[in-house]
Amino acid sequence: MGEESNVKRRDSELMFKILFGILGSFNSLLVSLWFRVEENANLCGLYILY
Fold first, then answer.
1. Residue 30 three-state SS
2. Which of 5, 18, 22, 28 has its CA 20 to 30 A from that of 48?
3. What is the span of the domain harbouring residue 27?
């Protein structure tokens, strides 16, 4: 019985790791996308609006 709960806990830990991995990569993607937008805005001279 103790063995089964151990497996369940390991599965949930794996799920959390996968979830956080996806969130982390998505977050870095958003950040790089934002920096690209900022760069383009500066190139277009839109920084005057800031």
1. helix
2. 28
3. 2-49
Q: Tell me, what's the pLDDT at 36? A: 84
CB contact burial 20-35 (16+ within 10 A = b; e otherwise): eeeeeeeeeeeeeeee
**Is 47 within 8 Å of 41 (Cβ atoms)?**
yes
Mean pLDDT, the chain, rounded, equals 82
Q: Rounded to 5 degrees, what angle do the CA atoms 29, 37, 35 make? A: 50
Tally of structural domains, the chain = 1
pTM beyond 0.85: the answer is no
Residue 2 pLDDT exceeds 60: yes
SS3 of residue 50 by DSSP: coil
